[in-house]
Design brief:
The protein has 190 residues and is α/β, with parallel strands linked by helices. The chain is 30% helix and 36% strand. The longest helix is centred in the N-terminal third of the chain and has 25 residues.
Length: 190
């Protein structure tokens, strides 16, 4: 007997060995149900309680980041966040983390601009013998642009399990971890 979990672009098969023990088929199915429930609960709780964040980065390898010390914000659309408090918290957290990396906010003469893109909420779906299992997820992306050419020199995206209905305190904790993930590869080679 096999159980198939489906994720976009990924297929995994888990096999049960029918010679493993003397249990009846019903006992094995019950054990499998309990195992699946425990795994789903663990995945759900780990996503909520620890605010697990995934991130991806890319950059223009022709760009010399060593001489860059200042930045400015491109116009931010607060509607990309569910609240203006989230938008404010995101920007202040980015400013703080960039300052710890030696970058200064300088709207008059920046070396690069930061552009924030839409926070997308979507659902990852998995199939199980008990039906579909859904995990709400959110994504935010930032682009760092060369201030003279407006070309993207660094981009990063962060993903977290969240629905958007969390309390502001929880959203702020998720934003803190997301900013840390967004900036984990910045600046490249420095």
């Amino acid at each position: 007997m096999s159980l198939e979990l489906v994720q976009p672009g990924v297929r995994r098969m888990f096999y049960m060995n029918s010679n493993y023990d003397d249990s009846t088929r019903e006992d094995k199915q019950m054990k499998l149900r309990h195992l699946m429930l425990a795994l789903m609960l663990a995945a759900g709780l780990s996503g909520c309680s620890s605010y697990s964040i995934e991130s991806r980065h890319s950059y223009d390898s022709r760009t010399d980041f060593s001489g860059m010390n200042s930045y400015a914000w491109a116009p931010v659309n607060e509607a990309i966040f569910s609240t203006s408090a989230s938008a404010d918290h995101f920007q202040s957290t980015m400013d703080s983390m960039l300052a710890t990396k030696g970058f200064n906010l300088n709207p008059e003469a920046p070396d690069f601009l930061i552009s924030t893109h839409v926070v997308k909420y979507y659902v990852e779906k998995y199939k199980s013998i008990h039906g579909d299992v859904e995990f709400p997820k959110a994504m935010i992306r930032v682009n760092f642009l060369d201030s003279s050419s407006n070309n993207v020199i660094y981009e990063s995206a962060a993903y977290a399990y969240m629905s958007g209905d969390e309390k502001q305190e929880t959203k702020n904790a998720i934003i803190d971890k997301a900013v840390e993930a967004l900036l984990s590869g910045f600046p490249p080679g420095r």
